[in-house]
Amino acid sequence: MSGHLFCGWVFRLAATLLVAQGAAVPASAEHVPLRITVVFNNVPQVPGLAASWGFSCFVEGPGGNILFDTGGDGRILTGNMRKLGLDPKRVDAVFLSHMHGDHTGGLDAILGERSGVPVIVPAEFPQTFKDWIAGRGGVVKAVAAGDTVAKGVYTTGALPDGIAEQAMILETESGLVVITGCAHPGIDRIAAAAARLRGKKITLLMGGFHLGGTSRAEILKIIARLETLGVEKVAPSHCTGEAATALFRQAWGSRFLEGGLGATFLIPDPGAHISADRTS
Questions:
Q1: What is the pLDDT of residue 146?
Q2: Quick one: pLDDT at residue 33?
């Protein structure tokens, strides 16, 4: 297994949702076209990893290896990646959701490992930041709503909210996987934009939902909007807040997935399953 010890639970995507406990199948044993590993998070989950405020996940799929955000500290980020068996030198591109330091703080360390790597940013990012990326050896790729990032990977573009923030859309046979950094524009707005842009249902919505301090009444309204959109599974973490996370867990029940530090989501070919694995 070499750095990957698996335990967790498997959620099958079919007409009826089946939930099974047990060891997940290693990637080497079957073709897994999409694998998402949370490598930086303030929400702890897997023992032995360093939790810190921020968010990042490593996306492995047909479009290559894309690092979504970089957390707030490069040493912690690369350390967690290596503990999870993920070599920072394997990063083919970096996708930045927004400019806050808890999502961009590890970028310098990644550029030190992978000079010349494309860094995908909203077109609205200030030129000074784009110039800094270029000066550190990154290749800036400015994108807008609906643009293709890689094979099967798209961006919502920056939704207007005062903070230029984009979310990643991964298109699978089972539907869309949408990853958010902090969801400053609103997690319900982001989900609606993703579904509209690709014309498909959302099978998994994950990342920071930015609901810490939001009233219970407003959180319930947001949950209702997401349910109306038909979001099948959720894995909130980072800035979602404990109260909001508890309400999402209650609303989605067995379709709620733990998305803390070290969580791994496997999304194989048509229709099989999403498994949320945890290193132990």
A1: 96
A2: 76
Strands of the sheet containing 93-95, edge to edge, are 18-21, 6-12, 273-279, 264-267, 34-41, 55-61, 64-68, 93-95, 118-122, 139-143
- Angstrom distance (rounded) from CA 237 to CA 183: 11
Would you call 18 helix, strand, or coil by DSSP? strand
Please answer whether residues 205 and 185 qualify as being in contact, where contact means their C-beta atoms are separated by less than 8 angstroms: no
Would you state the pLDDT for residue 107? 98
**Per-position DSSP letters for 61-109, written without gaps between them:** ETTEEEEE---S-HHHHHHHHHHTT--GGG--EEE-----HHHHTTHHH
Q: What is the pLDDT of residues 16-33, one digit of tens each?
A: 222 222 223 333 334 447
DSSP conformation letters of 219-235: HHHHHHHHHHHT---EE
What is the SS3 string spanning 34-64? EEEEEEEECCCCCCCCCCCCCEEEEEEECCE
Nearest to 124 by CA among 155, 154, 95, 163: 163
Query: What percent of the chain has pLDDT above 90?
Result: 80
Distance CA 52, CA 2 (A): 25
Q: Which residues are registered as beta bridge partners of 19? A: 11
| Tokens 């609303």 -> residue | 251
- Cβ of 83: how many Cβ atoms within 10 Å? 16
Q: Is 235 exposed, middle or buried (0-12, 13-18, 19+ CB in 10 A)?
A: buried
Q: Which two tokens stand for residue 1?
A: 């297994």
Total length of the chain: 280
**Per-residue pLDDT tens digits for 162-184:** 899 999 999 998 899 999 999 99
pTM: 0.86
Question: Are β-strands 34-41 and 264-267 bridged in parallel, bridged antiparallel, or unpaired?
Answer: antiparallel
Query: Rounded to an integer, what distance in angstroms lies between the CA atom of residue 252 and that of residue 1?
Result: 32
Token digits of residue 30: 């079957």
